[in-house]
Amino acid sequence: MSRIPMAIALASLWAVSPVAAHAAKGRTQTPAALAKACAGKDEWADPAPPARLFANTWYVGTCGISALLVTGEDGHVLVDGGVAEAAPLVLANIRRAGFDLKDVRWIVASHEHFDHVGALAALQQATGAKVAALPTQKAALETGKPGADDPQFAGLTPIAPVRVDRTLNDGDSVVVGKLVLTAHATPVHAPGSTSWTWQSCTAAFNCKMIAYADSSSTISSDGYRFTDHPARVAAIRKGLPVMAALPCDILLTPHPGQSAMMERFAGQKPLADPNACRAYAKAAEGRLEQRLSKETAK
Fold first, then answer.
1. Can you give the pTM of this predicted structure?
2. Among this protein's residues, is 113 annotated catalytic?
3. What are the backbone dihedrals phi and psi of residue 231, each rounded to the nearest 5 degrees, phi first?
4. Which of 1, 204, 246, 266 is most buried by a 10 A CB count?
5. Which of the following is catalytic: 59, 76, 80, 115?
6. Does residue 62 contact residue 54 with C-beta atoms inside 8 Å?
7. Residue 189 catalytic?
8. CATH classification number, 6-297, choose in 3.30.200.20, 3.40.718.10, 3.60.15.10, 2.60.40.10
9. Is 229 annotated in the active site?
């Protein structure tokens, strides 16, 4: 198991709650069933069944966009929500997994683009949950528009504004009972990009650190040149080592395809790999350097 601060380890070291165990009993909501249902489907609003990924960590998103529910005896945390059209699908998946919508206490997000937070306003209204975000992400959520310094700004669709109840600092945690989800500023894909880590344990105290690493691609709207924005490049180069160093037994990502999630769910590759976050960040670093070299050569 990856090393984590002792306080978080003690707070997070817990067996699957009776609620989670009841929800899973007699069901076929496995990662393999999810992968099978999504075979050949990766559109952002393609419906997917819920699946218990590991212990109290559930997939409740669509085939093409991740949304995760981390469950506990005192309430749950929803991580990402998908596009606006996915809101009813996510809500239905939470119910299908056996959980009460009103037990979702907090909603957090990876980054402020419409394909991941477009559904947040509707999800917040339906659950009554509070939303927490780092400052840059908070500004985008509350206005419904990403900042003009986002490389993809020109091509992004506005979202319904979201009420943010708590402003986080890098390294802060969202705590619900024994659940502890820690925010890591990783401004690689977007200025407000946030990666999340938490510990999940089975009833037999088999514990894994889950790393929901934000998107690592450095893409942009047409005409944007990273070499003209040294501050953005510096932020990316600061965020990538943070991604690489995340406590990371099981890597999950906002787009399943970014980390071969469906292939791992299907058993074609190992689900757990303590080197996954390092490899994920290293590959992204290589793509960034290629992009900068191409811009410089023009």
1. 0.91
2. yes
3. -65, -35
4. 246
5. 115
6. no
7. yes
8. 3.60.15.10
9. no
